[in-house]
Design goal:
single chain; alpha/beta; Rossmann fold; Dihydrodipicolinate Reductase, domain 2; eight-stranded mixed sheet; six-stranded parallel sheet; 10 helices; about 35% helix; about 25% strand
């Protein structure tokens, strides 16, 4: 399929590298040089500073929207009105109410829309989800997720620290990934408690968030996200009645991706331990895009559709409302 990318920053570049057998036809960015820098890596790619010009190209089938948060939903809406299938970078919008419009437009124009939550496609996380669904650690009890990065000089002056552009801080950035994973494993979740704090960075959004979520069966998800970690980190621990799963690392600066299965023995004591390591480069963006293309062609339901993404943002909005 033919693809257009709107937003040519770091994530837009990663998306361009992850198209598989599909073809990049055009890119757009308000910073024209960023668009040119991306286009030069591929043959025959058209460049625009106005994304609406990209949407006029009839042969483009899919538009990837990888802009700052406050422009995700408006640009996706225009792309859908142009009858393009759309992959929107997470969180898909600033407020959950913005996704109501996208849900209606997807039905009206008969286009497929997905919000990009690529963590589900990391091999260790993907295998952990599969093991849970196979029942290999027994009935699930609870899970914990810790996700954070160390920040960098000037972090508090970047767009993510501007609430009008980002919608929020760590909760809206890495927090939505964690809620998505918890929702994928435990199903629909409700907010029990949520606190946001700005401990270190001089900015008007939170640099740490702490959540407790619960499903209708009483399973608990504990989540902490932070940009005062000082070293990038990711860990996911899932506890069942006959075993435990632990995912560590995401590759790159987060460390080698690893999944450990702790299988309880009948006599209990020290469990049987099996470890899987994934040292290959991260290809989660490509796996996600291929699944989206399959959804368009074969109507295979994708992970992280609009309604699932709206549930994530409802939790985020509720946390911010509780912490006013």
């Amino acid at each position: 399929m033919n693809v257009g990318i709107i937003g040519c920053g770091k994530i837009g570049q990663k998306r361009a590298e992850s198209l598989g057998d599909n073809t990049l036809k055009a890119v757009a960015d308000i910073h024209l040089q960023s668009a040119y820098d991306l286009a030069m890596k591929y043959e025959g790619v058209k460049v625009f500073s106005d994304y609406k010009e990209l949407l006029k190209i009839p042969e483009i089938d899919i538009v990837i929207v990888s802009t700052v948060n406050n422009m995700l939903a408006p640009i996706a809406s225009d792309a859908m009105r142009a009858k393009k299938h759309v992959l929107i970078e997470k969180p898909g919008a600033i407020h959950h109410s913005e996704l109501d419009v996208l849900i209606l437009l997807a039905e009206k124009y008969n286009v497929q829309v997905k919000v990009g939550y690529n963590l589900r496609y990391h091999p260790a996380i993907n295998k952990a989800i599969f093991i849970c669904r196979e029942g290999d650690i027994g009935e699930l009890m609870f899970l914990t997720i810790h996700y954070g990065h160390g920040g960098r000089l000037g972090y508090n002056k970047e767009w993510r620290s501007n609430k009008e552009i980002s919608g929020g801080g760590e909760l809206e950035d890495q927090g939505v990934h964690c809620i998505d994973l918890a929702q994928c494993i435990l199903g629909d979740l409700s907010l029990i408690s949520g606190k946001i704090k700005t401990y270190f960075w001089d900015m008007k959004v939170e640099d740490n968030a702490f959540l407790i979520l619960e499903n209708e069966k009483g399973n608990i998800a504990q989540i902490q996200v932070s940009c005062t970690e000082w070293r990038n980190t990711f860990s996911l621990e899932i506890y069942g009645k006959t075993g435990k799963l632990k995912v560590e690392g995401l590759g790159g600066s987060y460390g080698t991706e690893k999944l450990t299965l702790y299988k309880m023995l009948p006599e209990m004591g020290i469990p049987q331990i099996t470890t899987f390591e994934y040292a290959q480069p991260d290809n989660s963006f490509e796996k996600e895009f291929i699944q989206f293309v399959n959804f368009i062609w074969f109507k295979e339901e994708p992970w992280s559709n609009l309604k699932e993404s709206q549930k994530i943002l409802k939790i985020v909005d509720e946390v911010y409302e509780c912490n006013k």
